[in-house]
Design a protein that fits this description.
alpha+beta, 4-stranded mixed beta sheet, OB fold (Dihydrolipoamide Acetyltransferase, E2P), 196 residues, 3 domains, 15 strands, single chain, 4 helices, Ribosomal Protein S8, Chain: A, domain 1
């Protein structure tokens, strides 16, 4: 059974993330939806900033050109640094992988490539798993129905190009608003199948 919890709410059972323990009890650190489940409970935050993790793929924007590399805005409290042989201009949109996150949250990127043209939209980073879906099922369905190219960054930035971008944006907005609800895939499928 799912329930809305706020920071400090006591949670029953074993929960692995977005929690803290005190005197043997487990408490929520976030505003989120808690599903007790069978065995390990799951806590999904409803809001939150992006905190980089190694191997995350992110959609970034070149914010500054420096000697030896680029400062990249990755939609996080922390900027990232990219050393690259490629030539970029300020405001170029790139896809890159988080290579390292130091103890002081200094972030370095690697495996970069430029995303040409297209548009960027942003969703709450905590909703990205719902936008992607299990084994990419949700984003693949949106791509198939709208014929748009879509790249989803773990940092909550989504790059879209070609096809019916406005329909793709609407579907992603709907996913973000309804991420905490059951039956979402079926509703998004119905929405995408509607002919206007």
């Amino acid at each position: 059974m799912k329930q809305i919890v706020v920071p400090g709410d006591k949670l029953e059972g074993k929960v692995d993330s977005y929690v803290f323990t005190d005197a043997g009890n487990t408490y929520s650190m976030v505003l989120g939806v808690f599903d007790k489940g069978d065995g390990v409970g799951k806590l999904d935050p409803l809001t939150g900033k992006y905190f980089p993790q190694v191997d995350d793929f992110v959609v970034g924007v070149i914010s500054e050109i420096k000697k030896g590399g680029y400062v990249v805005d990755i939609n996080s409290p922390y900027d990232a640094f990219l050393m690259s042989r490629r030539i970029y201009d300020e405001k170029d949109i790139i896809l890159a992988r988080v290579n390292n996150v130091s103890e002081v949250r200094s972030v370095s990127l690697t495996y970069d490539k430029k995303l040409f043209d297209g548009e960027i939209m942003e969703v709450s980073p905590v909703k990205v798993p719902r936008v992607i879906g299990k084994k990419n099922s949700m984003v693949d369905m949106i791509k198939e129905k709208t014929k748009a190219e879509i790249v989803v960054g773990q940092n909550g930035r989504i790059w879209l190009k070609g096809g019916d971008i406005s329909k793709a944006r609407e579907a992603i907005d709907k996913i973000e608003k309804e991420a905490h609800t059951d039956g979402l895939t079926e509703r998004i499928n119905e929405f995408l199948n509607k002919v206007i």
